[in-house]
Specification:
alpha+beta, Nuclear Transport Factor 2, Chain: A, two-stranded antiparallel ribbon
């Protein structure tokens, strides 16, 4: 098998070199040649890839700067698939907070202030109970199913089936779409 011949590529001429300082070997004296800036001819002949321009940022004196903060925008799909994902994610985080695997602060943006305070109190009570008990191997709770109904376009009610060891529990929650476009839990019943 023969290899194809490589095509010859024209060489790019190297930019002209400037004299550099040299040390005379016998005298140890440094001789310096006068270095001049490149002439217009040399600049025109230099390849474009070797020319670097400065970037004008426009932040000098008198530059306009807009300090107004733009609101963070999020797209909220109104279809059922998006709400199913939101409900499943909320249910999983809620169960992990209730069992002490997560801190209640992780539900701050998912709940109203009243529900968040209830979850904080429950988490503090659970922490006190766990710190006083002897260390044992813990089973983690599992969300088995999340059932969703929409009584209104901007509200949904969740039925959450939680399995914790050999026991099953139910959680009922109502989430509503707030003016900021996020779903928040406004009612919670633990069974």
């Amino acid at each position: 098998m023969t290899r194809p011949a490589l095509a010859s590529v024209p060489a790019v001429p190297a930019p002209p070199r400037r004299p550099s300082p040299r040390i005379a070997p016998s005298s140890g004296v440094l001789t310096v040649s006068r270095l001049l800036p490149p002439t217009l001819q040399e600049r025109a002949e230099a390849p474009l890839a070797q020319v670097q321009e400065t970037l004008e940022l426009g932040l000098g004196p008198g530059a306009a700067w807009d300090p107004v903060r733009r609101p963070r925008l999020r797209l909220v799909a109104r279809d059922g698939a998006d709400l199913d994902r939101v409900a499943a994610r909320f249910a999983q985080i809620l169960v992990e907070v209730l069992t002490g695997d997560r801190g209640p602060h992780q539900l701050l943006h998912w709940t109203t202030e009243e529900i968040y305070l209830v979850l904080q109190r429950r988490a503090a009570a659970l922490q006190r109970a766990v710190s006083n008990a002897a260390p044992t191997r813990r089973l983690s709770a599992q969300v088995r199913s999340v059932h969703l109904t929409r009584p209104q376009p901007d509200a949904a009610e969740l039925g959450i089936h939680v399995r914790h060891g050999a026991r099953s529990r139910a959680i009922a929650a109502r989430i509503e779409l707030g003016p900021d476009g996020r779903w928040r839990c406004c009612a919670l019943e633990l069974g």
